[in-house]
Write a sequence for this structure.
């Protein structure tokens, strides 16, 4: 009985140390399995705050990239529409230059009416359920020709326009705001409607104004080309912005990985050390538990 009392404290202490070592081994083995120091922030200690900040920054950058890609797709679509408008104006100029006598004016009038309708359809293009050229009124078609009629070639007339003056923009994470929207009131579009409407409505009664019509169409085409170039520039700048954000995300994820991932070699050494300690502890416990008083009598 005296021997049992004498070994109890030793056995309890060794058993407690063995359980602690076993828990440490289980933790290291879990880390080896997942490759992570911990499966939650609580197990990261002082690194937890840094990892949270990095993850928040990554999420914000990913949202910025998504927004930028949306704007790029809209700008690219607008540029495509503007290019189609340039083609319409090229055809209209060809029709004007091909008119050399008064008896051809009726044909030119019919052609102008067709080009005017084509122009309206282009400017009223919808993309992803939004009108591209209506400012903030993206659910409203920007052009309605029912009450529009250009009566001269020199007076600016935007009576066809149904949108507002708002210019769509995107605010980047670096604090920069980039305008990308185009309304149907820009000079090129307005001049195109004015020239085609003037001819289509029969205001051209002789060939003396053909040069003025052509000059207005040239101005319209130049304005459309400038707007197309601006849309392309917006896409290019946003592509660069996206690349920078993607580089940041890659770097932030690598930093977070450094904070959360285990050192494989160090974990292997610890696991081996704990296994060796456990084997020794189990061996010692076995000997103590099997001690008998009669063996010492």
């Amino acid at each position: 009985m005296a021997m049992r009392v004498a070994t109890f404290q030793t056995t309890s202490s060794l058993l407690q140390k063995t359980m602690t070592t076993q828990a440490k081994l289980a933790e290291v083995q879990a880390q080896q399995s997942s490759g992570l120091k911990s499966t939650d922030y609580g197990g990261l200690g002082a690194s937890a705050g840094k990892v949270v900040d990095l993850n928040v920054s990554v999420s914000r950058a990913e949202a910025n990239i998504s927004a930028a890609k949306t704007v790029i797709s809209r700008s690219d679509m607008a540029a495509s529409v503007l290019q189609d408008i340039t083609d319409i104006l090229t055809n209209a100029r060809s029709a004007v230059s091909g008119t050399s006598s008064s008896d051809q004016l009726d044909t030119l009038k019919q052609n102008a009416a067709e080009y005017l309708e084509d122009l309206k359809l282009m400017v009223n293009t919808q993309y992803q359920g939004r009108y591209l050229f209506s400012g903030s009124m993206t659910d409203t078609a920007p052009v309605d020709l029912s009450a529009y009629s250009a009566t001269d070639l020199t007076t600016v007339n935007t009576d066809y326009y149904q949108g507002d003056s708002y210019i769509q923009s995107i605010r980047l994470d670096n604090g920069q705001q980039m305008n990308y929207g185009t309304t149907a009131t820009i000079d090129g579009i307005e001049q195109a409607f004015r020239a085609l409407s003037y001819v289509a409505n029969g205001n051209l009664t002789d060939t003396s104004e053909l040069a003025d019509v052509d000059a207005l169409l040239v101005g319209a085409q130049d304005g459309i080309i400038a707007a197309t170039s601006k849309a392309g520039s917006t896409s290019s700048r946003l592509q660069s912005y996206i690349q920078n954000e993607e580089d940041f995300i890659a770097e932030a994820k690598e930093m977070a990985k450094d904070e959360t991932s285990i050192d494989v070699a160090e974990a292997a050494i610890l696991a081996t050390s704990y296994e060796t300690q456990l084997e020794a502890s189990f061996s010692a416990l076995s000997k103590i538990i099997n001690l008998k008083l009669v063996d010492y009598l």
